[in-house]
Amino acid sequence: MERDVNEEMDSLLEGVWWITVWVFSGHDLQPISTGGRLLALVGFVQGLLIATYLIALVAAFSIRGGRVLTRDHRGHVIICGWNYQGKLIVDELKKAQSASPLDFVIVTVQPVPSDVGKICEVIEEDPTQHSGLERAGIRQAKSVIVLTDPTAPATEADARAIMTILAVNNLNKKVHTTVQIMNSDISRVHLEDADVDEIISLDRLAAGLIVASAVSPGVTRIVDELMDFNKGKEFYTLDAPTVVIGKDFKEVAIALLQRGPILIGVEPGSVDRPPKGMSTRHKPKHEREGILINPRPYKIGNKDTLFVIASSPSQLRHAVDTLNF
After folding, report:
1. Dihedral sign computed on CA atoms, order 161, 167, 168, 174
2. Phi and psi for 305 in degrees, rounded to 5?
3. Residue 135 in 3-state DSSP?
4. Same domain, 181 and 91
5. From edge to edge, which strands make up the β-sheet containing 121-123?
6. Exposed (0-12), middle (13-18) or buried (19+): which is 314, by Cβ within 10 Å?
7. What's the CATH code of the domain at 300?
8. Could you tell me the mean pLDDT of each successive run of 10 residues in the chain, 325 residues long?
9. How far is CA 153 from CA 148, 150, 158, 160, in A?
10. Residues 126 and 150 occupy one common structural domain
11. Overall pTM > 0.90
């Protein structure tokens, strides 16, 4: 179109080049034919659309913690709620990622620090409702952590924790659940009825550590070291490997210690546990808890769970792989 009337644009490539220069630099060279101007206008609009798309893409990437689209989470951890301990929990989960891949999602209506939102997906919904849990991939989750709200009255905060667990179990009865509570005397019974796997009683735990430090100074430093990932050693659990089945606990403990890890306890797989949805609180204490610390004598069974202290998952795997009796 421009070839016959504009000597500066004597080919298609020259036309594209000069139109690009004109659009982005304001150079005074412009198409002068009607067709050339229409094509330049189309190119200008397309450039605007592409620029708008790229800006939206960058914004979505930043808002969603470095992810353009919501990921299909599997085998991940869901944090329900948010409190002053949330940042510390996220930091520990990040440390755990260095040992093995671990994805996590936060579901809360509470404000979450912007730096946390950059490293994981944050779903701004009520965790007591199914919609937020579904968006977080509750049916494919490995574990759920429910954080209490220390700014609310203890009874109210624990009631919300119970409601959250009921919603979680309604969608996925197999997911492992850990719940913070503030009033262990009242709420523990209801959470056991709701079939929570592990209960962290802030009142009882804090009181126990304070007493332990007073009676045996230095105990809290050991607990702190074991609770901090990538700092010394941590607690791990594993299903009893075939090589240790039928062996005495002491014999296995010595064999592991020679390779680094420390075997401290076992949960017998023979303990008669009720199906999901049935309460355990009416069973005898030894059947409810079932964890034996340094038992002697004790033969390890094929469904037992071992509790071990090790410096890393790789050290534990190597120790187990090299066991030979």
Report:
1. positive
2. -115, 130
3. helix
4. yes
5. 121-123, 104-107, 77-80, 143-146, 176-181, 198-201
6. exposed
7. 3.30.70.1450
8. 55 61 54 62 67 66 48 86 91 72 88 87 94 94 93 90 93 93 79 84 82 88 79 86 94 95 89 46 45 90 92 91 91
9. 10, 7, 9, 11
10. yes
11. no
User: In the prediction, which pLDDT does 62 show?
Assistant: 52
| 190 and 308, same domain (yes or no) | no
Amino acid identity, position 12 = L
Query: Which stretches of the chain are DSSP H helices?
Result: 12-25, 34-63, 86-99, 114-117, 130-135, 154-171, 184-193, 202-215, 219-227, 249-257, 285-289, 313-321
Task: Report the pLDDT value the prediction gives residue 212, as an integer from 0 to 100.
Answer: 86
> Is 140 in the same domain as 257?
no
pLDDT at 274: 46
* Token output for 144: 């759920």
287 and 200 fall within a common domain: no
Whether residues 123 and 31 fall in one domain: no
How wide is the angle at C-alpha 66 spanned by C-alphas 60 and 68, nearest 5°? 45
As for how many domains the chain has, the answer is 3
Q: How far is residue 225's CA from residue 233's CA, in Å, rounded to a whole number? A: 7
Beta carbons of 85 and 110 less than 8 angstroms apart: no
Q: Which domain holds residue 177?
A: 77-206
Residues 124 and 200 in one domain: yes
